Amino acid sequence: MLVIGIAGGTGSGKTTVVNKIINSLPQGEVAVIPQDSYYKDLSHLDPADRAKVNFDEPDAIEWTLLVEHLRRLKAGESIEMPTYSYLTCTRQEQTVHVDPRDVVIVEGILVLNDEVLRTMMDVKVFVDADADDRLIRVIARDCIERGRTPKMVIDRYEAVLKPMHSRYIEPSKRYADLIVPQGGSNVVAIGLLTDYIESRLNRL
Q1: What is the pTM of this model?
Q2: What is the pLDDT of residues 151-193, one digit of tens each?
Q3: pLDDT-derived band at 64, boundaries 50, 70, 90
């Protein structure tokens, strides 16, 4: 099994990179473990208090469960991956069944921040993009998928996303084996990454 960690700022193009890797490999060969599925359940808090939680710092993630699930996949066991609702900030009853695959991609803004998780990765990737490009993508995504207004998104960007990116996400770039500038539009870097993955798979 080849474990790939893909980090980068919100709106940097991580999902695009992941999808291009999946599409370049045989169907069913890749399992994706999104960090976002492992946000801590906040159902014990009032909705007003949930809205105050900072989801862009490491403490928001249940790392122990994510690490345990990755260990089980590496051991050849299936897992029931949690699902999370951004609208209610709670973990859902439904889970996603994930079987072990030749390639497991762990993807999220903070996945290079956890030391234990990093040691389990064979390849660590940081997807880089200009701040303006990331903000535009975040506005488009949050307005469509999460019911926020552009002003809400911009206010959150200034108050949370920007400082947390500088504090946690950008510094994690130093742990990366490969940095992909220009996000998901960098076909050369993504091509090099997929070629490397294929060469490693041929040796498994």
Answers
A1: 0.89
A2: 887 888 888 888 999 999 999 999 999 999 887 788 899 899 9
A3: very high
Mean pLDDT of the 50-65 span: 88
Angle between helices 14-24 and 187-203 (to 10 degrees): 50
Taking a C-beta distance cutoff of 8 angstroms, is the pair 83, 92 a contact? yes
Q: Going along 130-183, which residue ranges are E strands?
A: 178-180
Query: Is it the case that residue 86 has pLDDT exceeding 90?
Result: no
3-class SS shares of the chain: helix, strand, coil, % to 5: 50, 20, 30
From CA 82, how far away is CA 65, in angstroms rounded? Answer: 10
Which residue's structure tokens are 């019911």?
147
Nearest to 3 by CA among 113, 107, 128: 107
Q: Where are the beta strands (DSSP E) in the chain?
A: 2-8, 30-34, 79-85, 90-98, 103-107, 123-127, 178-180
Cα–Cα distances in angstroms (integers) from residue 194 to residues 17, 101, 130, 173, in the given order: 10, 16, 23, 20
What type of residue sits at position 191? G
